[in-house]
Amino acid sequence: TEAVKAYLQDGQSLEIGVAEEMAEALRAKLASTAGQGVEIVTDKTTGTGFRVKLADGRIEHDFTGGAIVETLAKQLRPGLTRLLES
User: What does the pLDDT look like over 41-74, one tens digit per residue?
Assistant: First the structure.
């Protein structure tokens, strides 16, 4: 919710993609931002993570499990990367 508030302060509109089972809880949590440029959509590929799209979809921040593993893997030694990916 803090990240959403920060984007809205900058005048951005955003789309948040989350799994269907998380969408209602997120809508309730962000109820105070309704009508301020926040759209919550269901995305079956996010798992327990989420994606944020800005600038009419031209900018995307990916916080899904796969994206986080990929980012961490670039920083770890090969043995740790294999363990994380499994």
Answer: 898 889 888 998 887 778 898 999 889 888 887 7
**Given a cut of 80, is residue 21 above it in pLDDT?**
yes
Q: For residues 8 and 36, is the Cβ–Cβ distance under 8 A?
A: yes
**In the beta sheet, which residues pair with residue 15?**
39, 53
- The bridge status of strand 59-62 relative to strand 38-42 is unpaired
Q: What is the secondary structure of 21-69 as a DSSP string?
A: HHHHHHHHHTGGGTTSSEEEEE-TT-TT-EEEEEGGGTEEEE-SHHHHH
Q: Which of 63, 33, 75, 50 is nearest to 84 (CA)?
A: 75
Three-class SS state of 12:
coil
> Whole-prediction pTM value?
0.72
